[in-house]
Structure prediction request, 177 residues.
Amino acid sequence: DVKGKIITIDAIGTQEDIANKIVIDKKAAYMLKVKDNQKDLKDDIKTYFDLELKKDSSDIAIAETNYEKNHGRIEKRTYYISYDTECISDKNKWKTIKAIGRIDVYREEYGKVSITKNYYILSEKFNIDRKILIEKLFKEGIERLITAGYSLEGSKAALEIAKGYPRYICNLWNITK
Prediction:
């Protein structure tokens, strides 16, 4: 049973029928990664953040990590979340989106610097406890665990992240069965 939990998955699960099933049929919430397989949706979210961050918008909550050094690389992440979903052009298709997010990942490895921007859709306006959970999920790259086919409950890293939040967490495998 996934009722009341947050479903996370990489971009392969970012389909409107899956998103709607999670919220409407299963009474759960989602945090789904958006990539080029949903190009219009990604463009809507990207444009929103690009324009609003230039304006220093108060509609965007921002959190940052410190620089972290691990496995020969240095990383820093900046998290953005907004409840302004007016930028979504196809609201009928994506009727369950309540928030959008972006994560900028600065990485320095072997003398090379890269900045990757990742986009997300969320099905509810999370309270502070869930916001902290989302930051922890993003920070630890939980979407990589899901993509690799690991259940959150079976992953030591995920269990560490989820300590104190077990009722909120599950994965797409539980939804599609």
